[in-house]
Amino acid sequence: MSYRKGELTTAGINEGWPHQIARLSSLGTMKQADVIAAFCANLSLCPRGHTVVWEGEWHRVYCFAKREDAEAFLERFGGEWFDPRDKGSGHYWHFWYKGRAAAKEAKKRARR
């Protein structure tokens, strides 16, 4: 896969903006998008996010550099915490495997 020079990669987003909130895309109508943009103007929101599918519904993932900004967004607009390790890769880039990372960690701890 090739990237354009200077373009944010998924890994770069996850590293620089690790606090992520997933929200149903159907909730982000044009009017709502303007409200979200105004609210996030002074927050640490990444200029680029991503989308994922969970149970047949698309979710928009908002990425923040500061945890308190993500918490403020979550309180105002709802949604749920998104762990970037739960995002699919390769051909399945768009799938959200909710809880996969937590399950792997629990399995590791159980083996110790």
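the 2nd protein, sequnce then structure:
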Amino acid sequence: MYQLSRGDKVFNGFNMILVGIFTLVILYPLLFVVFASLSDPRHIFDQVLLLWPRGFTLEGYKRVFANGDIWMGFKNAVIYTALGTAVNVIMTTLAAYPLSRRDFRGRNVITMLFTFTMFFSGGLIPTYIVNEGLGIVNTMWVMIIPGAVSVYNMIIMRTYFQQNIPVELEESAFIDGATDIQLLLKVVLPLSTPIIAVMMMFYGVGRWNGYFDAMIYLSDRNLFPLQLILREILVQNQMGDAANQAMMSVNQSEVSALKQSIKYAVVVVSSVPVLLFYPVVSKYFEKGIMIGAIKG
């Protein structure tokens, strides 16, 4: 059995301490928000570090769940994320698979044209004009259809198909009478679970956290996603009509503290879906990000 030398033990111990420090630095902001959402806002900054809830209270969460705007935004965010991620994965697959086929003529030229759009685009105003011409501005579809394909993700998926789907398997499927669509649906996709899961995570997190497109294209408040409602609360200090009416019964001296509690609670509520989704696909994440790193 291999015995670690004294130098190896010191090196490993130093690495563990260093990794532990980095972990605490990264994890503490999340813990701070969680503890602050459960604390009396007047006692959050009594000490330099907040290591546990101070003056435990659920008032912020009560106000959040009583706010109709937040529930409306949460519902819209779920719809945009679910439909948008489905469109993203389908369109990315339909673009990546043909470009991975060695018998597809012109695939290098088409890939180059796709890659060109990663560095050069029309900009915000032409994009807005195009979406307005399509008649999707201020509708739910403006949050789903534009950006249906990420070129970076498409290239990752194409590389996966090239390196993990044997050409011999495709040829044998054709010999058995399979069509291109049957090959994709019955052979390629069942063998591509890791990359599909990774694409779902990439697209899903991006869709859930996105607010800029909603801010530009949506004017109907009933279509606002949760992140735009969260922006109003955090940046513009607006709580919505329902929350403002609820605060009328609160003393003016407590309004500021209550707003702080609501801000922290909203951040936690908006982050929970992503935190629950990540463990589902985490086992595929390492394999997905290592695509193309090793040639074999």
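The mean pLDDT is 82. The two ends are 31 Å apart (CA to CA).
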